[in-house]
């Protein structure tokens, strides 16, 4: 009989926030007014670990959870969210002469543990143990989204002051007045 179980080493497993990253572009305001707008921010997290894709754990690109994926879920309590995506609206307030950007920090869970299998009840030499570390989106720590802002750099200020040629208004304002207008 094949009995495979996963045992998490709780002393070495933990939740954490991933390093901050900027998922969207930076906006600079050259106006004299405060900009107040809502923009969507999309985030995506995936799972990874030290097991090969052939192990069939979710997040490895193989589709449905394998026996090892089910055993992992049973050994860690609540089933982990292997891959997550979300889109949230963020109200962004940008002061005059500032640059603004969004940073996100993903809530992650690193689980260290082992898979144990007994393949033959009569011969313990056929038993095997596989130690692993799997990192996946956390179910107990939420993602963080921050709006960051700072003053424009010297080169950005020069860009704001540069000449922006546009069409003369009204059309033909440079021409002398006449009946043909």
Strand segment count:
10
What percent of the residues sit in helical stretches (DSSP H or I)?
under 10%
Indicate the structural class: mainly beta
Rounded mean pLDDT score: 78
* Cα end-to-end separation: 96 Å
Strand content: 35-45%
Q: Give the number of helices.
A: 2
The topology string of helices and strands comes to EEEEEHEEEEEH
Low-confidence stretches: none
What summary fits the major beta sheet? 5 strands, antiparallel
Shape: rod-shaped
Measured on Cα atoms, how large is the radius of gyration? 28 Å
Write the layout of secondary structure elements.
Elements: E1 3-8, E2 14-17, E3 27-28, E4 35-45, E5 48-49, H1 67-76, E6 84-94, E7 98-105, E8 107-118, E9 128-137, E10 144-151, H2 154-161
Antiparallel strand pairs: 1-8, 2-8, 3-7, 4-6, 5-9, 7-10, 8-9
Give an account of the 3D structure:
It is rod-shaped and about 105 Å long. Strands 1, 2, 5, 8 and 9 form a five-stranded antiparallel beta sheet that branches. Helix content is 10%, strand content 41%. The model has no long low-confidence stretch (mean pLDDT 78). The protein contains two helices and ten strands. By secondary structure, it is mostly beta strands.
